[in-house]
Every structure is written in structure tokens, then in C-alpha cells.
Design a protein that fits this description.
One of its GO terms (cellular component) is membrane. The chain contains 25 helices and no strands. The protein is mainly α. The protein has a domain of about 230 residues: Growth Hormone, Chain: A (Up-down Bundle), CATH 1.20.1250. Helix 2 packs antiparallel against helix 10 and helix 8 packs antiparallel against helix 9.
């Protein structure tokens, strides 16, 4: 139906739609904010290439010996826990940052949290590029991780709160799109820096992270905060004006519809202020959202996509490709990684979250089977990269716990990213093709879970999201029981 009337997405009758349309102001703010994904993607891609460069591997002598072929087992040439620790250390720092990011993101706003992430990442890039010893690399890596933690916490929240609800999926998925652009950017840079003799190659690659850090930092300077965040911090007049601009409708329509609901959500959040947001998050009424915020990031990592990207150049090198050829293969991987993400951005608000998740799961399972069956020279990574792991947790929580819940989701994501990055090389060494059977198993489990337990959130305004749980065959029991308990009290 038209804006302002009732909409009835599949399975969610009676959910209201707010008036609005695609505007230049909303498009600009969301695209600039989504560029925050560049820092995460750049680090993933640049680290994968740098750890295959001999001059860099002098910091990790055992890894260098393996890379030069001292291991007699083909797929054990990657098996260096020290090198794996360097790769995965960032995610421990990001996990810590995401847990602490909830309070500053709520009190200072999403925009300022994004800016802080950019500054920390820039400091880590400078430190890494100038490192003279392994401890300097570690400090730089930790700073990079802190930056990623703050950015990955605040950017999806910013996008979900700023975007018009009918376009929220596409704009939020653009965060993942810029992650894939960052990976590709880094892979192309590595292609050129790998040819530079001495230490300059890897230093330029690591230090080049300053550029994506500048993009998010300067971008945050020109962005407004989200209307939800403004209202939560008492800036009602500014929030009303901003909401009118980004929705492209008249003042009365904004105030009668979305603005009043945002104010009501903020008032409810302030009424809960005497209770710690973490304890609120653990209440039974939020059990469905909390479960999904933990399970979805888990599945996102245990499909194996990030592990392969982390080690792509070394992986191709161990399979007999030369140094230059292995980086070219990583570039091809980066290009192919962008394509399905573009499809996701286009289709997520048309087909819905469930359909895209299930289609992605089917394609991933097929690709894992192909990779496992042709582990030799045909080990190409063309797994589709579904962006829903970042989208869903940022859109399903109410305002009073949204920042804390995002901390949980990001920290779980980073924890399992660390785990997979740390164990992948050892698993490949001992299981060989079996590692892809392992990942394929989790793709199947993920698809079954999505089919039965994920409600559709397409075109549902954030302030109306609670209705999807009361209408769900399984999650409704938690919500109904929680409401009944509150009435009795």
C-alpha cells in the first residue's frame, strides 16, 4: 500500500509503514557511512598478501621456512601458529573494543564512534608500516583491531537507523559491499608491492591502511548522527529536521508517523535507564533477538569464507603457484567476492532476508563440495559472500538495548573469526579436503536454522520490529511468557 497506510509483508500482517522515499541526502549519508567497511576489508586482504611476502616473514622465521618448502606435507606449509596468531590478533582486539563500544556509541552517538574507529585504525596503520620489530607489529595490529571493533559496531547501527525501512537491507548490505571492495583494493595493491625488493613492499601495503582510515574519519566528520541517536540524547528539534530531510516528506507526515514512534522508543529507553542495559538484554522478552545475534555471526564465520580469504595467497602458493601467480589468484578471488555481494545489495529488499540466506547457503554448499572434490590445482574461492550477518543483528533490537546488543553480535563475530583464523592452517594440514567438508556441514546446519527460526524482517520499521516475534511459531512463546510475567508483577 502507499506510504502512511498499512503494509502486510509475508507473515507479518498489520505492521505499519512510514512515509518516505529514496532521497539524495539519505543516499549520501548511508553510502559515506558504509565506506567504513573499507577498513575491515582492506585489513583482511592486505594481511593475506603480506603474510606471503618473504621480507615480511623474517619476523616469523618458522613460517618463512615452511613457506619456502621445508615442510614435506603439501598443505602443512601454512601451519604456523605464530603467523596465524599475527593474523587473528586483530580480532581479539576488535572483540574487546566492540564490548566497550556500546556505552560511547550510545552516549556520544553513532557518528562519533565511527570517527574514533577511523582514528584508531589510522594509528595502527602508521605503527605497522613503520614497525622495526615484531612487538611493534603486534601493537599496530592491536590498534587496527580496536579501530575495526568500533567501526563494525557503529556503522551497521548507523545504516539501520538512517535508512528508510523499505531500503534498509540494501543500504546496510552496502557495508559488506565495501568490505569486499576493501579486500579487492588490498589484493590489487599487494600485486604491485610484492614486486618491490626489500622491506618497502610490505611496509607500503600495511601503511596504506591509512587511506581507508582517512575515508571513514573524514566521512564521519561530514555526517549527521542518526535521528534515533539524536532523540535518545535529547536533540529532538535537530532530529525532526534531519528526519524530514532524509525521508523527503512534509513536516506533518514525519511528526505524525516515524518521529513520534522514535520519541516513544526513546522515552521507553530512558524509563529503563535505571536498569543496566546488559541486564535488560538478558531478559526473557529479548531472548529471540539475543539468540539470533549470537547464532548468525557464528554461522557467518563457520561457513569458511573469511578463513580462505585470510590465507588465499599462501594457500595458492602451497598448491604450487609462484609468488606472483598466487597474489593474482587472490585478486581474482577478490573480484569474484564482489559480484554476489552486489547481487545481495540489489535483492535483499526485494526477495527478503530468508530467501537470500537460503539461496546463499545452497550456493555455498555447492562450492564447498566442489572445492573439497578438487583440492588440487582447482582450489578457487568463489563462495558467495552474504552480507546478512551484519544486517540482521543491527535491525532486530529495540532502541534501549540496540547498542549493547550490537556489542554482543560484533564480539561474537570477532571471537569466531579469531578461532577460525587461528585453527584453519592446522585443520588444512591435518584434514586436507576434509576442512571444506567441515565448513559444508555448518552451511547445512545454518540453512536449516534459517528456514525454521529466522522471521522475515524485510520492510519492517525498526520501531515495529517487535511484532515479528509475537507472530513467530517458536519465538512467540518467549515473548508471550515474558509479557504474562510482567502483567502478574
Amino acid at each position: 500500500m502507499e506510504a502512511g497506510g498499512a503494509v502486510a509483508p509475508a507473515g507479518h500482517h498489520g505492521v505499519r509503514a512510514y512515509p518516505g522515499r529514496l532521497t539524495m541526502h539519505m543516499s549520501f549519508t548511508c553510502i559515506v557511512a558504509a565506506m567504513g567497511g573499507l577498513i575491515f576489508g582492506y585489513d583482511i586482504g592486505i594481511t593475506a598478501g603480506v603474510t606471503s611476502m618473504d621480507p615480511f616473514l623474517k619476523f616469523f622465521r618458522s613460517a618463512k621456512e615452511r613457506a619456502n618448502g621445508s615442510s614435506t606435507i603439501k598443505y602443512c606449509q601454512l601451519d604456523s601458529q605464530v603467523l596465524a596468531l599475527f593474523t587473528s590478533l586483530l580480532y581479539i582486539a576488535a572483540l574487546s573494543a566492540s564490548l566497550f563500544a556500546s556505552t560511547p556509541t550510545r552516549l556520544l552517538g553513532r557518528r562519533n564512534s565511527m570517527m574514533l574507529g577511523g582514528v584508531l585504525f589510522m594509528a595502527g596503520a602508521i605503527g605497522s608500516g613503520l614497525a622495526q620489530d615484531s612487538w611493534m607489529l603486534i601493537i599496530g595490529r592491536l590498534l587496527l583491531g580496536l579501530g575495526v571493533g568500533f567501526a563494525n559496531h557503529s556503522v551497521p547501527l548507523y545504516l539501520s537507523e538512517m535508512a528508510f525501512h523499505k531500503l534498509r537491507g540494501a543500504f546496510n548490505a552496502s557495508f559488506q559491499l565495501f568490505i569486499t571492495f576493501g579486500v579487492l583494493w588490498a589484493n590489487v595493491l599487494n600485486l604491485f608491492t610484492a614486486k618491490i625488493s626489500g622491506d618497502w613492499g610490505w611496509r607500503l601495503s600495511l601503511g596504506g591502511a591509512v587511506l581507508p582510515a582517512l575515508i571513514i574519519t573524514l566521512g564521519a566528520l561530514v555526517l549527521p548522527d542518526t535521528p534515533s541517536s539524536m532523540i535518545e540524547r535529547g536533540q529532538l528539534a535537530d532530529a525532526r529536521v534531519l528526519l524530514q530531510r532524509i525521508r523527503g516528506v512534509c513536516f506533518e507526515e514525519v511528526e505524525e508517523e516515524e518521529f513520534n514512534d522514535l520519541v516513544s522508543a526513546a522515552l521507553f529507553a530512558s524509563s529503563e535507564a535505571n536498569q543496566d542495559e546488559w541486564s535488560i538484554l538478558l531478559e526473557k522478552r529479548y531472548r529471540p533477538q539475543l539468540c539470533l545475534a549470537i547464532i548468525i555471526p557464528f554461522f557467518q564465520q563457520f561457513t569458511g569464507i573469511n578463513a580462505i580469504i585470510f590465507y588465499a595467497p599462501l594457500l595458492f602458493r602451497s598448491l604450487g603457484f609462484g609468488d606472483h601467480a598466487s597474489i593474482i589468484c587472490a585478486v581474482i578471488t577478490g573480484v569474484v567476492n564482489v559480484v554476489p555481494t552486489l547481487v545481495s545489495v540489489y535483492s535483499v529488499d526485494k526477495w527478503g532476508r530468508r530467501a537470500l540466506f537460503l539461496a546463499g547457503g545452497a550456493l555455498m554448499l555447492l562450492c564447498q563440495a566442489v572445492i573439497a572434490a578438487s583440492l588440487g590445482a582447482e582450489l578457487w574461492d568463489w563462495l558467495p559472500n552474504c552480507p546478512l550477518g551484519w544486517l540482521l543483528p543491527s535491525e532486530i533490537f529495540p532502541l534501549e538495548i540496540r547498542s549493547a546488543a550490537q556489542s554482543v553480535s560484533v564480539s561474537v563475530n570477532m571471537a569466531f573469526t579469531f578461532a577460525v583464523a587461528q585453527i584453519f592452517s592446522a585443520m588444512l594440514c591435518h584434514l586436507e579436503f576434509g576442512v571444506f567438508v567441515f565448513f559444508g556441514f555448518f552451511v547445512v546446519v545454518m540453512s536449516v536454522f534459517i528456514y525454521f527460526f529466522l522471521p522475515e524482517t524485510k520492510e519492517i520499521p525498526l520501531e515495529e520490529m517487535s511484532q515479528i516475534w509475537t507472530n513467530h511459531w517458536y519465538w512467540s512463546r518467549f515473548v508471550t511468557v515474558a509479557v504474562a510475567d510482567e502483567v502478574e508483577e
